[in-house]
Every structure is written in structure tokens, then in C-alpha cells.
Design a protein that fits this description.
Organism: Glycomyces buryatensis
Protein name: Pentapeptide repeat-containing protein
Helix content: 25-40%
InterPro entries: 5peptide_repeat
Keywords: Membrane, Transmembrane, Transmembrane helix
Shape: elongated
Number of strands: 26
Number of domains: 3
Radius of gyration: 36 Å
Strand content: 15-25%
Structural class: alpha/beta
Length: about 400
């Protein structure tokens, strides 16, 4: 959708000024003619005194007509002057806004993190003061987050930076720069989180048409309770714990090709239109508990590498899991909970509804078989619910496919 420019004072139509001038002339002439008719009506005799008095009255009528015309003309001049002042003030305001925006964008391009932080604050202030600029401000912030970024390497054990056998001392300059850039990016994320959450109040929430974060690197982003009009996260990298709890996606969101390096929570999220998660990778646990998919949900080629839960998820239309992978690649035991899938046509019950399970079976979902050694016995830690089992693939015993264990009801 094309952005609408800020609306200023509407210009006066080209035919308005001639119309006003003609109206003044005709109105003045009508007023003079009315006065003259009243003067002629009192002409009782033809004496010289009467003629002089009538002449004086006609002159006064003409003077009154000119005074009325001058008054109307003066009023028109005042209106034109007021409109000129409005346009001048509008132009001055737009010039100031443009200068502030250019300055803020220039600050974002600075090599000093403190200057970049100031640029983000200036952009936020512009959006708070000028509602018509909020989409532009959001676009600028999203564009900044889409810039290439290499986070400092961290040790997976304690979350600290991994420096190997470096001597004790100040961190390398590149690591320090990456840390400072991470601080700036966290502020940019906080601005988005603050102004996309309706629960913060009507004055804080910014209406928008899109949130374009495709290919962005997002660290511990929290869009819980937010209302996102058109969320584009294709190819994005989500580091740390990602939260979309009770988030409302009013238009089709795209997570195609995105990578979730940490936990991903979509509990009670609402997808009003199609939801795209094709070729998305969840490296750790992901939860779609009680999520509502009102339209088509695409999970083709998606890789679930940790604990995966769709408990009480509601699919009102097709859920496509073709060629998805459910693997136990994480260090902890992996469990795929499919027992409590349900749709409006199949309420929750002890037996998984066939249509959702059929979506997995027909889509050829690959289930990772991670055997765990317990008391010298290998156990399969993949729970797919009653009435189903995972049958290892002949060509790759580490993977399996869903197979029914109960008889199919005849139509």
C-alpha cells in the first residue's frame, strides 16, 4: 500500500477568487439598486429641494454600496491572508520535520553508538508528535534492524563471550563495538515493542500498515500482546527467547526461512489470515499452545529440532506440514505432543482428531527418532498420541513416519 503524504491546508480553487469578485460587484449593485428604488418611491413632488435631497440620498446609497463592497473585499483579503499564513506555517513545519528526520537518519549512520541512540530517540519523538509520520518512523527503525550485524560470540554454557585462551584484559575492539551495537539495536526493538502493543494505551499504540523485518537479526524480541498488521520476518534470525504470546497477526505474517536460535513462544497467538512458516527452523523448543489459525497455515519444510507443542491449537482451515522435520537434536529429551490437537469440527478428546493427524501423515512429516539409553534399554522418546506410532524409515532408521495403529472407520 502506498504511503499517504502528510496533508496540509487545502488550496483555494482557481475559480473561487473570480467568483468572489463577481459576487461582490453583483451584491453591491443589488444593494445600490434597492436603495435607489426606495429613494425614488418617496419622490412626492418635483421641487428643487426634493431633487437635492434625493441626489444626496443616492450619493449616500452609492457610498454605502462602496463601503459594503470594501468590507466584503477586506474580509476576503483577511481570509486570503489567513490562508497564506496557514500555508507558510505548514511549509515551515514540514521543512522542520524534514530537517529533523534527515538529522535522525544521519545520526543512525554515525560510527558512534551514543549518536545512533540519539537518532533513535529523535525518530521516536517525531512519531509521537506527528501521527502521519509513524509508518515512516517504523520503516526507518525496521530498516536499521535489517542492516547486517555480527553479534559477539558467546559461550553456550554460561552465556558469556567465548574468548578461548585470551589474556585477561579489556575485550577486543571488535567485540566491544559489537556489544555497543547490540545495545543500540535493543533500543530499536524496545521502540517497536512499546508502540505496537495496544495494552500500553491508545496514545502509545501506533497504527501501521506493515512491519518489515525480513532478514533482520532480532535478539530476545518480545512482541507479546502486540497487534501486527503485516509482519514480514522472512529470513530473519531470532536469537535468545522470542515471544509472540497473545500476539494478533491481522494480516498474513511471513516467517518463511526464518531461524529461531532460542526458545519460541507463540502461545495463544491469533493468525487472522494465512500464516507462513515454510522452511523455518526452530533450533530449540517451540510452543504454539492454544494458538488460533483462522486461515491456511503453512509449515512445509519446517524443522522442529527441540520440544514441540501445539497443545490445544485450533486450525480452522488447512494445516500443511508437508516435508516437515521433527527431530530430537537438542541435548534434552524431545517430545512431540500431538495428543490434543483439535479443530472446531473435532473437539478435544482422548483420541487425536484424524484430520490434523492426517495432515501430518499425508504431508510426509519426518519424525526424529532419538533413542535414549536408560537401564541398558533404548527408549524412544517421541510421543505421538494414542492411535498412532512412528515407524522407522528403512533407508534411515534415525527418522520415521506417522503410521496408524487403530483401524480406519469406514464411511
Amino acid at each position: 500500500m502506498r504511503d499517504d503524504p502528510p496533508r496540509g491546508p487545502r488550496p483555494i480553487s482557481g475559480w473561487a477568487l473570480p467568483l468572489v469578485l463577481v459576487s461582490i460587484v453583483l451584491g453591491g449593485w443589488w444593494f445600490y439598486d434597492l436603495q435607489a428604488a426606495q429613494v425614488d418611491a418617496v419622490n412626492a413632488d418635483n421641487s428643487i429641494e426634493t431633487e437635492l435631497e434625493l441626489t444626496r440620498l443616492r450619493v449616500e446609497s452609492l457610498r454605502n454600496m462602496l463601503a459594503v463592497g470594501a468590507g466584503v473585499g477586506g474580509l476576503a483579503a483577511l481570509v486570503l491572508g489567513f490562508r497564506r499564513q496557514q500555508h507558510n506555517e505548514y511549509d515551515a513545519t514540514q521543512q522542520r520535520i524534514t530537517e529533523l528526520r534527515i538529522k535522525a537518519v544521519e545520526q543512525l549512520g554515525s560510527d558512534k553508538p551514543t549518536v545512533r541512540i540519539g537518532g533513535l530517540h529523535n525518530l521516536e519523538r517525531l512519531g509521537e508528535q506527528h501521527e502521519e509520520l509513524r509508518q515512516i518512523v517504523l520503516d526507518e527503525i525496521c530498516a536499521y534492524l535489517r542492516l547486517p550485524y555480527a553479534p559477539p560470540k558467546r559461550d553456550k554454557g554460561n552465556g558469556r563471550e567465548s574468548r578461548g585462551f585470551e589474556p585477561v584484559g579489556p575485550p577486543p575492539a571488535e567485540d566491544r563495538a559489537a556489544e555497543m551495537e547490540g545495545t543500540v539495536r535493543m533500543l530499536a526493538q524496545e521502540i517497536l515493542q512499546r508502540h505496537l502493543n495496544p495494552k500500553f494505551g491508545k496514545g502509545q499504540y501506533w497504527k501501521h500498515r506493515r512491519i518489515h523485518l525480513s532478514g533482520a537479526y532480532l535478539d530476545r524480541i518480545n512482541f507479546s500482546n502486540c497487534r501486527l498488521e503485516r509482519a514480514l520476518f522472512a529470513g530473519a534470525t531470532f536469537a535468545g527467547k522470542t515471544r509472540f504470546v497473545q500476539t494478533t497477526f491481522t494480516r498474513s505474517p511471513s516467517f518463511n526461512g526464518a531461524t529461531f536460535e532460542g526458545e519460541a513462544w507463540f502461545n495463544s497467538a491469533i493468525f487472522n489470515e494465512r500464516a507462513y512458516f515454510a522452511d523455518t527452523t526452530f533450533l530449540k523448543q517451540v510452543r504454539f499452545g492454544a494458538a488460533m489459525f483462522i486461515d491456511y497455515a503453512e509449515f512445509t519444510g519446517t524443522r522442529f529440532c527441540g520440544f514441540t507443542s501445539f497443545d490445544w491449537a485450533q486450525f480452522e482451515r488447512v494445516a500443511d506440514f508437508k516435508a516437515s522435520f521433527l527431530s530430537g537434536a537438542s541435548a534434552h529429551r524431545m517430545s512431540v505432543r500431538l495428543l490434543r490437537y483439535w479443530t472446531p469440527d473435532h473437539p478435544p478428546s482422548g483420541k487425536p482428531p484424524t484430520d490434523i493427524m492426517d495432515a501430518f501423515e499425508a504431508g510426509g512429516v519426518s519424525i526424529g527418532l532419538e533413542p535414549l539409553l536408560e537401564d541398558d534399554v533404548f527408549l524412544l522418546e517421541t510421543d505421538v498420541g494414542e492411535g498412532w506410532k512412528v515407524e522407522p524409515l528403512p533407508e534411515d532408521p534415525d527418522w520415521g513416519r506417522l503410521v496408524r495403529t487403530d483401524a480406519q472407520p469406514e464411511d
